[in-house]
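User: Hello, can you help with two protein structures?

Assistant: Certainly.
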Amino acid sequence: CHTSGMLTPNGKEYAQKIPREELTHLILKLLQAWKEPLSHFNQHHQELPDDSLSKAKQISNMVHELKTGVEKVTEKMQSMGIISNSLNGMASSEAAGLSIGNEADMMSDSDFIHCFRRDSNKVQSYLKILKCRIMPENSC
């Protein structure tokens, strides 16, 4: 996986020990790291059946929307003083170095999907942990 070089906590208990700011940064980094590979996948798999191609584009759009949503939440957290302003622009510049380039051509579709699923699960877990920290009234 092209994101294997990213340092991410293994397991929920380790992720819960990471400060909110770092966890938010990690979420943004993972989402940004998938922007180019998903676009590359969509461009190079035009031969897929229409429903599969449509699903791939839908997933790509959802990742973009999720990243935009996390960025908005981050801005709100910064304005409320929950986290500092040190996250501005960090995820984009750091993830830019995680280009998939030729890896996309060499990675099988099943490997690509496996990696995406793995990272999607991480993002989902990290978002749940972050939500519980920010809104403890949800009794997580």
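That covers the first. Now for the second protein you mentioned:
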Amino acid sequence: LQVPRTPTQPPGGSESRRFANKHSKKALKASLTLGILLGMFFVAWLPFFVTNVTQAVCGCVPAGFFDVLTWLGYCNSTMNPIIYPLFMRDFKRAMGRYLPCCRRAGEPRPSAISLSMRNSNSGPRAPTSLKNVL
């Protein structure tokens, strides 16, 4: 007895499969970045917090060791700006736009006025009155 085979993908399924693969790759990369960031956070700060609780309970932690663990946590904060550009293309593009050391040769430099206008929500606005608002 043979069962007839039916195609598993409808016609045009290759495009939807490509779309799904593209998004699954992005999700995998985002998960990897988040895992690295959280892993580094725990490696850097967990010893500090455990030592802090130990110090509160028994008071037996040397001050120098406590300082080293505090600075380990601070080092984690300096690693974030390094990790983000390595794994996130959008972050890398944004940094390249605003930092002169990371800008490509052909890219125009944003002016200070355009940046302040964009960030301050100022600019041409329609006149408003109480009647228009209500």
